[in-house]
């Protein structure tokens, strides 16, 4: 038994087996982090494409097309990364044989499969049925437009379910702030998708669409910054998160995810929003910074989470507190053996 000081400075005298790790770190590595990154971009790209098609006009046609194609590309890139991580292709197939409502991994497998199917139908239907010159839509294009709503719904799941998957584990860093992590992943997915689509509009030469997408990316990045602060606060309250604040991982997270991925693009888009003649270079720089920062953020959270699993002090600090978003536990009278019955005073 080893005494370990907690966040308040007092000593935790619980069993740690001489400081040895109480948990086994997850096997998740760069492949899963990359999948989470691409899944977020794909899911939010489908959402943006659907909103542009439903609420926009003919000027948004390139956003709709690029969003649908980007969603399909992300859906196709996901399974190979998952199969490579599972080592055996049959394991991915077996996850689709049984649906378990209590398993985020089972839920995510079906979300990925459904999203891939819906995104394929929207992209192929769009490709085969482009708008006619008179502005009307062919039968294939109308079919693609009908599938885009369920595809966008599944895209929202793609953007956030990975946070639920991580939060369902016993890893202290991931389990301490499930709500904040879900918002952080969701807003980052929207920011990176808008940034990727903005770069597509730069290639197409449409500055007006770039301006609107940059505004969406800035709003999402601001939301991610708030979610990151809330997650940090929750980590501090739970006595975990040192692996994300200190050392090489912490330095990379602060410099890459926060400064490069959020601070720089917010500054670039703010300057363009206040300028009468927005700079194309600042728009491209802001978009590239968001894309790079989103990847750094996920890699850092994965690495820091695995490191936190190796720290028994963080695990015991977390387990002594009520999980975020849960109601206080009801008192159990051990003498009476009855749940919720208090001892008479």
TrEMBL record:
Region of interest called Disordered, as start-end residue ranges on this chain: 312-345
Keyword field: Cell membrane, Membrane, Transmembrane, Transmembrane helix
Coiled-coil residue spans: none
Domain of life: Bacteria
Keyword Ubl conjugation assigned: no
Transmembrane spans: 67-86, 106-128, 149-169
Localization of this protein: Cell membrane
Signal peptide start and end residues: none
One protein family per Pfam: NrfD
Record's keyword annotation contains Metal-binding: no
Composition skew (Basic and acidic residues), residue ranges: 312-324
InterPro entries per the UniProt record, alphabetical: Electron_transfer_protein, NrfD-like
Topological type in the membrane: Multi-pass membrane protein
Record-stated family: Belongs to the NrfD family.
Name of the protein: Polysulfide reductase NrfD
Organism field: Skermanella cutis
């Amino acid at each position: 038994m080893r005494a370990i000081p907690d966040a308040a400075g007092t000593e935790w005298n619980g069993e740690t087996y001489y400081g040895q790790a109480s948990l086994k770190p997850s096997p998740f590595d760069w492949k899963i982090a990359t999948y989470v990154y691409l899944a977020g971009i794909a899911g939010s790209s489908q959402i943006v494409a659907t909103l542009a098609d439903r609420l926009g006009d003919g000027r948004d046609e390139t956003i709709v097309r690029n969003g649908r194609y980007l969603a399909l590309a992300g859906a196709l890139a996901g399974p190979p990364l998952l199969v490579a991580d599972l080592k055996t292709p049959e394991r991915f197939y077996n996850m689709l044989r049984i649906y378990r409502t209590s398993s985020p991994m089972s839920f995510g497998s079906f979300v990925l499969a459904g999203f891939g199917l819906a995104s394929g139908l929207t992209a192929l239907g769009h490709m085969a049925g482009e708008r006619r010159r008179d502005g009307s839509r062919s039968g294939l294009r109308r079919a693609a437009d009908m599938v885009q709503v369920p595809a966008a719904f599944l895209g929202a799941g793609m953007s956030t379910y990975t946070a639920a998957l991580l939060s369902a584990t016993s890893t202290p860093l991931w389990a301490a702030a499930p709500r904040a992590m879900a918002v952080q992943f969701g807003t980052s997915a929207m920011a990176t998708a808008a940034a990727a689509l903005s770069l597509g509009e730069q290639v197409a030469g449409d500055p007006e669409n770039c301006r609107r997408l940059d505004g969406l990316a800035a709003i999402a990045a601001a939301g991610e910054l708030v979610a990151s602060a809330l997650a940090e606060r929750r980590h501090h309250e739970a006595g975990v998160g040192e692996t994300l604040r200190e050392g090489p991982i912490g330095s990379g997270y602060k410099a890459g995810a926060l400064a490069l991925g959020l601070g720089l693009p917010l500054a670039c888009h703010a300057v363009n929003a206040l300028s009468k003649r927005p700079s194309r270079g600042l728009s491209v720089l802001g978009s590239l910074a968001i894309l790079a920062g989103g990847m750094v953020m996920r890699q850092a959270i994965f690495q820091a989470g695995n490191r936190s699993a190796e720290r028994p002090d963080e695990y015991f600090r977390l387990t002594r507190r009520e999980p975020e978003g849960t109601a206080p536990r009801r008192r159990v009278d051990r003498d009476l053996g009855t749940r919720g019955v208090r001892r008479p005073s």
